[in-house]
Amino acid sequence: MIGAFGLAVPWPRTLCAVGAHHRVYEREGWRIYTPRHAPAADLAGHLTFALKYEGLDLLVLKTLFRAAGPAPIAATVRATPTGSYARRIWFLYEWLLGEELDLPPAEKGAYVAVVDPDLQWTAKGTASPRHRVRNNLPGTPAFCPMVFATAALRTFHARNFVERARAAVADVPGDLLARTAAFLLLKDSRSSFAIEGQHPPQDRIRRWGRAIGEAGRRPINLDELLRLQRIVIGDARFVHLGLRFAGGFVGGHDRETGMPLPDHVSARPEDLGDLIGGLAAFDRTVAPELDPVIAAAVLAFGFVYIHPFEDGNGRLHRYLIHHVLAERGFNPPGIVFPISAAILERIDDYRRTLESYSARLLPVIRWQPTDAGNVRVLDDSADFYRYFDATPHAEFLYACVERTIEVDLPAETRFLRAYDEFRLAIGGIVDMPDRMADLLFRFLSQNGGRLSQRAREAEFRALTAPEVERVEEIYRKAFG
């Protein structure tokens, strides 16, 4: 259909074909079906094949409906008015385009789900009597990325990470848990800046950490995003706060000509208000019905593809992950998952995840450079940011959540327990201020548990040789 109608849309990540063999198999981005799966060589046949086997690509469908016009869609419904696929196609046409076909309401046919839950993630759904379908699309016409129900996501979903996270901290004393939470919050804030290649002053890191700690308490809308942008930017003398007035892209410039070299082209400024409204509606009405991690991935990566601000988009994108997880009670009480730290550990996978859509989108966006070294998008591109395949993003985020629960939370509580043991044992040897004990620990940790000759002769020259040996033994017992 993309080829037959000349649709300027990104190609799906997996393409389907009919082969000569009587078995279904996948190879190098293709899923090969048997001759008996071959669709009729017309629009209705190929649409039915897509809904039955390929799942919904809403961007392809909306672009196709505009190109084909209402007549062939109405004819498909009239040919099989009680057919489940015809009624789903009919509903999708009207839902995506906001235009009713010249058809009377359906009178017969059992209600059927618009999205096949065996293929893609769905919302609970509401009935559409006109089409006799159940609208279980995981979004609204203003914003509805789709997520395939892959084996990886089904496994993640079944593992009940909420209970696993609570179990990871169940036996941690309250004071230790509070310190763990404070450290993880600061760690996530620092990591979120580090992902952007920034190393701001400590007070700015703490200010953003406090904002992350309040995630989930306020609904997401334009005003809230503007408030968060002001916090994350801080000094706005050289940054425009608010929605962009000009185009935007992620990438670099040619060193000689200054020509933009985009890796990703952001949404047009005239579309930003409507797209942010779509995000807000998704957060308010649809996200509560979805798996929390999948909802967080859809909202956060949708935001970063839109890229509505001149600066701060990446950190707000990761804030939205915290927002959904906290709002849904996914975190243990009082704990903020250090998602940014987990992302920083897998930064190459993170970039590949972002590129899973950007690289397919870039060839179909028509743009021209501006005199200011920016880009100007030449066509209506809003739908590119409403409808995309968020499956890689959900799988990546779930992997980060798994690492946080299985590795980071236990490791941090173990570290703080060991550090308390170290500080208590040091106090049995010599009385020293907290800052000196912290400095002693840092010197030991940086030098494999041994106090360097320089430290012995400078900051800790007051320690005797036997005391140094005992300090090093204490460190080894506490930290291994």
Automatic annotation (TrEMBL):
Gene3D superfamilies named in the record: Fido-like domain
PROSITE patterns: FIDO (PS51459)
Record-annotated Fido domain positions: 220-370
Secretion signal, residue range per the UniProt entry: none
Matches recorded under InterPro entries: Fido, Fido-like_dom_sf, Fido_containing
One Pfam family from the record: Fic
Name under which the protein is recorded: Fido domain-containing protein
Species this protein is from: Labrys wisconsinensis
